[in-house]
User: Which sequence fits this backbone?
């Protein structure tokens, strides 16, 4: 007899993934942290699914001198879409667990991987635009210099060290992607007869 149903552990983990994605809507997804001699305590900016918090107004003031755009939460179309996208994937995980079919697990895993890649590409493009499209009439112009923050990790930008890394929500998203990939692989490799 052939079966296309999921094992119980897979279903439980899908439910956990769904709940975790709901949580990710309400916690910071990403952190950008700047440190410099004049700011030994550092400056932090936190990107959530629907807002920016932290000291981004101070960062705006500093970036004005080198011609970078100011950061305004209302300029990010992603903040209107991202909470719904995370809610959609949470519902998809729960639906896959409820329907108990391998195909729904595969669909969920593939769509979430595509979403994850698109999310990172969009974030990189935002950082690229932010760090390269500079005002040529800024008070400080360093020929050939761009100020794109790192996607993940550390980068020295003049006298500022810039760190960029996932926060709680970003960690959840990476974790869910990994769990879905592992579950899809295990279920695909599972013998079809019982």
Assistant:
């Amino acid at each position: 007899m052939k079966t296309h149903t999921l094992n119980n552990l897979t279903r439980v983990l899908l439910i956990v993934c769904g709940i975790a994605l709901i949580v990710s809507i309400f916690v910071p997804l990403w952190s950008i942290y700047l440190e410099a001699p004049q700011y030994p305590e550092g400056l932090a900016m936190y990107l959530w699914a629907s807002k920016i918090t932290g000291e981004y107004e101070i960062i705006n003031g500093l970036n004005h001198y080198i011609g970078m755009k100011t950061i305004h939460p209302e300029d990010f179309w992603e903040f209107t879409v991202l909470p719904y996208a995370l809610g959609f994937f949470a519902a998809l995980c729960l639906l896959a667990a409820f329907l108990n079919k391998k195909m729904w697990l595969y669909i969920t895993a593939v769509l979430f991987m595509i979403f994850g890649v698109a999310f990172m590409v969009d974030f990189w493009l935002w950082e690229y635009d932010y760090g390269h499209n500079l005002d040529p009439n800024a008070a400080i112009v360093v020929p050939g210099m761009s100020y794109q923050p790192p996607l993940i990790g550390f980068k020295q930008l003049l006298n500022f060290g810039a760190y960029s890394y996932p926060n709680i929500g970003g960690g959840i998203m990476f974790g869910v992607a990994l769990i879905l990939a592992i579950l899809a692989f295990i279920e695909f490799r599972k013998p079809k007869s019982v």
User: Anything to note?
Assistant: The chain has a mean pLDDT of 92. The longest strand covers residues 39-47.
